[in-house]
Write a structure and sequence with these properties.
Blueprint: H1 2-24, H2 43-77, H3 82-101
Helix pairs in contact: 1-2, 2-3
Length: 135
């Protein structure tokens, strides 16, 4: 039963993150169903959408907190050390911040995995991956 609940929560989290990634891309001329592209809306329409966008952000934050709880459960089960858990959480926070501000001026640049998807923006210096850290 516990495994079913954990797998269900994990699946919902993955769907939410996938929806975030989908909504991050440009969509000229159309409004994305998740509120990602609002340039073609009137001020009144944007105002009407604002509570829904805020609600979506709240849900993303709640799911982020649930994911952190799941990682801490893995620590209590002995599957992860606290250091590993802290690293996972730090990466999740970094990813969430990147998705909120976007590494490129138009929000493009993040890949679906752990890499940096450059797509058509490979010539834009603002969309290049960060330089590797020296050790």
């Amino acid at each position: 039963m516990k495994k079913t609940v954990l797998f269900t929560l994990f699946g919902l989290l993955m769907l939410a993150f996938a929806a975030t990634m989908v909504s991050a891309g440009p969509n000229p001329g159309r409004m994305h169903p998740f509120g990602g592209e609002q340039a073609n809306l009137t001020d009144a329409q944007k105002e009407e959408m604002a509570p829904l966008v805020a609600k979506m952000k709240d849900l993303h934050q709640q799911m982020f907190e649930v994911k952190k709880e799941m990682i801490q459960k893995q620590v209590s089960f002995g599957n992860l050390t606290q250091e590993q858990a802290d690293q996972h959480i730090a990466k999740m926070q970094e990813m969430q911040q990147r998705m909120e501000k976007g590494p490129c001026p138009d929000g493009m640049g993040m890949g679906m995995g752990h890499g940096h998807g450059r797509g058509m923006m490979h010539g834009n210096p603002d969309c290049q991956p960060p330089a590797p850290e020296e050790k």
